[in-house]
Design goal:
β7, α5 (142-159) and β8 form a beta-alpha-beta unit. This protein has 375 residues and is α/β, with parallel strands linked by helices. The protein contains eleven helices and 17 strands. Helix content is 30%, strand content 21%.
């Protein structure tokens, strides 16, 4: 394994920090009447001033304020907008890496979207980070997370890992594989279906063999792959439904009948099983198989089946209900996260080369940025 510390890298890099709202960009303001309100901090430069002197001196920094929104309100419009901003930044050959400070609630969606939008077009590391407590609040995780994100950009640049990454609580995740697992703990993120890329030990980061392999493979094939440019268009019209016992098929059917749905995701109970029977004595339909057939045959809408379990995999051919859904035209998402599945589907249907049902199916099974390994 390779280790980089703040003292071992010789060249002083140029790092651009993009302020994108979230808790890390907030501070508690106390009014004269004693009321305490959480308000946006002035700018990303103020965040850097809270870090150690070593961190501030390890690189040349530039800044931009992009959004000051709660990440709950961010959507594919913002994904595309940030992708274009990162593309603009990386065209400046003086800039070696980008750090994005972001709210934790939808950070994994944004990181996954940037991974796909940039693809092989990404020439520098992009690192997302955030915090569970505002910077300046006692016991906040904001400063260590920002410091480690900055250190990660240096190590990733030296390693040749020009990918979208997420850094939180001393660990480095691949952006297309991270999920949020806690709304309050400092170790709020995990990568249950893919190895962690790096971990901070003492003053440095230790990269895993997986990170080294990704960087090696990217370097080895860099002259063999065409740069198809930025692909930052996402289609909003994808619907995800969590299966519950007794779900009436009329509800997903009503969505299909709008004519606006471009993709339907069914979050299954386990490894991809979908209810395939009706019970007259219950007095309500529960069989979702005819709906899947109608979606794929009549409306030409792709139907994906994921799992509700973090770190789970869809293996739809193991049981009858799963096999029935496969035969009806549903597609298993393998070990893609429940975050990456809708992000990838929104991205695919937004691209001109993935307009037919078969094209989208082929795209979902294609590994673009290490977001999927098995189906």
């Amino acid at each position: 394994m390779v280790k980089f510390s703040i003292m071992t890298l010789s060249k002083k890099p140029h790092i651009h920090i993009v302020g994108h709202g979230g808790t890390i960009g907030m501070e508690d303001v106390v009014y004269p009447d004693g009321t305490k309100v959480r308000m946006p901090a002035k700018n990303a430069q103020d965040l850097l001033k809270r870090t150690s002197k070593d961190i501030q001196e390890m690189a040349n920094f530039t800044f931009s304020e992009f959004e000051k929104e709660d990440s709950t309100n961010l959507n594919p419009y913002h994904w595309s907008k940030l992708a274009h901003e990162i593309d603009r930044i990386q065209k400046d050959e003086e800039i070696d890496a980008v750090v994005v400070t972001h709210g934790t609630d939808t950070m994994t969606y944004h990181a996954g979207a940037i991974s796909l939008a940039m693809g092989k077009h990404l020439k520098i590391p992009v690192v997302f980070t955030g915090s569970q407590k505002p910077m300046g609040q006692e016991g906040s995780d904001a400063t260590p997370n920002l410091e480690e994100a900055i250190m990660t950009t240096r190590g990733a640049r030296e390693l040749g890992l020009n990918r979208t990454l997420l850094v939180f609580d001393h660990r480095v995740f691949l952006g297309s594989r991270a999920v949020k697992i806690s709304e309050s703990r400092f170790d709020a993120f995990d990568s249950p279906a893919f190895p962690t890329l790096g971990e901070f030990v003492g003053s440095g980061i230790v990269w895993s063999p997986v990170a080294e392999n990704i960087a090696y493979e990217d370097k080895k094939t860099i002259h063999q792959k065409l740069d198809n440019g930025l692909k930052a268009k996402f289609d909003f019209n994808v619907v995800s439904i969590e299966l519950t016992p007794g779900l009436n098929p009329i509800f997903p059917k009503a969505i299909l009948e709008t004519g606006k749905c471009k993709g339907l995701i069914l979050k299954s109970f386990g490894g991809g099983n979908v209810p395939d029977k009706n019970y007259k004595e219950a007095g309500q339909e529960t069989n979702l198989i005819p709906m899947i057939k109608e979606a794929t045959n009549k409306y030409k809408v792709p139907v994906l089946v994921t799992t509700q379990f973090i770190g789970g995999k869809t293996k739809m051919d193991q049981y009858g209900p799963g096999k029935a859904a496969l035969d009806a035209g549903a597609l298993a998402t393998g070990d893609m996260t429940h975050v990456m599945s809708p992000v990838k589907l929104m991205w695919l249907v937004g691209q001109t080369e993935y307009q037919t049902l078969e094209e989208v199916r082929r795209g979902m099974l294609t590994n673009f940025v290490d977001e999927i390994s098995t189906v």
